[in-house]
Specification:
Length: 235
């Protein structure tokens, strides 16, 4: 049974009421995302608040807004944010992001999105919301980003390989550009399991990276350690 909390160096995520627990996907996106010039950040589908709080730690001058549709997860995220050092900069909204009316445009939109398109649903409704596309399709995420991004802003997501290819095709068809990718391998020599994507409305020379999670079980690879050193207690 997963722990009811996950302690990072500067904040703690309590997660007993969240369908999706702290996992490598969220940590990867929160650590990898390009936030260098971001003054305003939107976290879509915030869950426990993990990515929003990682963004707050990494971008100390940014205002972070987070949207979460699940009532239980939203309540827990609100508590996690209130306990964090950045409660004055992270604002949480409950509801569907499709109906979210932002008060500003965002320099960065982050999303660890639902990715199962046609698969057997979980018996847990909250997990279906978090991982199945019924409540937020990839096309809807692109529409949200198109109306909420500031000029020059970026949409940054993490997806399994096949879903990332599908998402990229949808995005390119809507006149987005994939400016940066990182393929995530579980161990050296293994096929990638996840892809991190940075998309923008402006074309730039594409950057391609490879990240490796572990050398072997419980022995993190240097490329992953370099990302998560500011967050994991024992990194």
């Amino acid at each position: 049974m997963p722990n009811s909390f996950f302690r990072f160096k500067q904040f703690t995520i309590y997660q007993e009421r969240c369908a999706m627990k702290v996992g490598t996907d969220g940590v990867l996106l929160g650590a990898w995302a390009d936030l260098e010039r971001a003054a305003s950040i939107l976290d879509v589908g915030s869950g426990s608040g993990l990515i929003a709080l990682m963004a707050a730690q990494r971008a100390p001058m940014a205002v972070i807004h987070a949207v979460e549709i699940d009532q239980e997860a939203c309540g827990q995220a609100r508590e996690n944010i209130a306990r964090s050092p950045w409660s004055d900069r992270v604002i949480l909204f409950e509801g569907a992001v499709q109906q979210f009316q932002p008060a500003c445009l965002y320099d960065v939109i982050l999303c660890n999105p639902p990715f199962f398109v046609r698969s057997t649903p979980s018996p847990r409704p909250g997990k279906n919301i978090a991982r199945h596309c019924e409540t937020l399709t990839h096309e809807e995420l692109l529409v949200v980003a198109e109306r909420a991004l500031a000029p020059g802003g970026t949409l940054q997501v993490i997806l399994p390989v096949v879903e990332a290819e599908r998402f990229s095709r949808h995005a390119v068809a809507r006149q987005w550009y994939v400016n940066k990718t990182a393929h995530v391998l579980p161990t050296p020599g293994k096929a990638p399991k996840r892809v991190l994507l940075l998309l923008a409305r402006e074309e730039r020379p594409p950057v391609h990276e490879t990240l490796i999670i572990e050398i072997e079980r419980h022995d993190y690879h240097e490329s992953y350690l370099n990302l998560i050193r500011a967050f994991y207690l024992n990194a």
